[in-house]
Amino acid sequence: MTQSALTTLFNQLATVLIGKPEQIKLAVSCILAKGHLLIEDLPGMGKTSLSHGLAQSFGLSYQRIQFTSDMLPADILGVSIFDKTQSEFVFHPGPIFKQMVLSDEINRASPKTQSALLEAMAEQQITVDGITHYLPTPFFVIATQNPVEQSGTFPLPESQLDRFMMRISIGYPSKEAEFAMLRANAASQSSQDLPQCVTPLALKEMQQQVDDISVSDALLNYILALIEASRNLDEGYGLSPRASKALLQATKAWAYIEGRTYAVPEDVQAVFAAVAEHRIRHTSQQQGQALSQTLLDNVNPIL
């Protein structure tokens, strides 16, 4: 039942993001691993369609927040307003109180506004006026950002980048995929019209099964060897302990999608770039790609 549900899910998402099966697979594995997803690409590549399609397919409540340079933290978290009838301040929740939140063009906002998401992403709660408010379960942030080379952007601080389990780039479609998209444009299904094919309860069960994926000590040593090698690079940043946990969880999710109850080195290699690139670079996206590939080439699994 589980694998058939995943097959239906992938086929459904493929109708809104044509010709990008690997990106879809990485996005789904990120959710199964209980992680937040960063999509970095040019406008018009299908970032919003993918995130909305995920929310619809999993039956999750969804909210898109368009980040701008004049946005304030209260625009995201909510605000307490004095109610005369009750003679007290009443909290009015912001748009972050949804199970899946799309933070669109997150690097258009100021660092102060970006940081409003830190507590929510790390602890699934927010604090306003000293009062803690808990967010829905499950809770996912899918953030999109334009390439840092574009004007009018504020680069995300490393502390926030580290809270995204994965970063993917959709990229331009192939000629064949774009032809199919144009051919089917009139009859294609909008991401907003997708039926729910995995219930939130089934998602929770899948996440539990991902946690139960078996990982050998030898595979753990391979993961640690990649982490250690990243800390000895002449350029870029070394991967944090949070990154090693994310890599392990993403590896389990990929193995689960492949239909196995145990993880293998190929699972680590499949998700490594998505987990590591945004964490180890300190300049361009291309630098992260080069460094992650260098690590995979130089560290061999010994099983």
In short:
With 303 residues, the protein is of the alpha/beta class.
From the structure above, extract its key features:
alpha/beta, Rossmann fold, Helicase, Ruva Protein, domain 3, two-stranded antiparallel ribbon, 45% helix
What is the strand content?
5-15%
Quick one: biggest sheet? Answer: 5 strands, parallel
What's the architecture of the largest domain in CATH terms?
A: 3-Layer(aba) Sandwich
Derived from helix and strand composition plus strand pairing, the structural class reads alpha/beta
Order of helices and strands: HHEHEHEEEHHEEEHEHHHHHH
CATH superfamily of the largest domain: P-loop containing nucleotide triphosphate hydrolases
Shape: globular
| Mean of residue pLDDT values | 86
Give the CATH topology of the largest domain.
Rossmann fold
The strands making up the biggest β-sheet line up spatially as 2-5-8-1-9
Domain unit count: 2
End-to-end distance: 32 Å
Instruction: Please bin the fraction of helical residues.
Output: 40-55%
Low-confidence stretches: none
Number of strands: 9
Tell me, what is the CATH class of the largest domain? Alpha Beta
Number of helices: 13
